[in-house]
Task: structure prediction
Amino acid sequence: MIGDEFPLVLTAAKSGDEHAIERLYRSCAPLVRGYLRSNRVRDADDVTSDVFVSMLTGLRTFEGDERSFRSWLLTITHRRMVDAVRRSQRRPEDPTDPQAGSELTIGYLDGEQSALARLETRGLLAAIDELTPDQRAALMLRVLADLSVPDIAHVLQKPESAVKALLRRGFATLRRAPAASDQSVGEP
Result:
């Protein structure tokens, strides 16, 4: 979060200040990338780049505070994610064997991989995979981005009542997951 300086940073970014644009990127890229990865986007880094290119294209027209900016950026993210999924369905790839090259990475895990490995062993990633794409998107926007129901409805282009139902069902599914009994999975 940028905080109180956000209006100044936004104004500078709109005028093309590279440092302000970098600050927006550094503040929001982990959120965008996390949202994409939590929704199992294959090339999350590439799609993240596309999101920020789109952000730069539309930045001059944006008006609002930091929370509105994050919501606007996640709307762009969601749309780029849908585009990426459609592209991958049109041109499916044949991924390499996950065991191929594992000898190169044995013993090496960065922080993110380590965290994902811990979640996997706890079954949370498997439980998240059981969610519908809409449930997963709504939950990630609520949990990762801390967006309100109206903001999530705007990002997903769904009525607020539908978002509430998606959140309720998604959290219920996670609570029923076998490993969830060891975790405190609940609505924030």
Observations:
- The chain has two domains: 3-90, 112-179.
- The chain is about 70% helix and 0% strand.
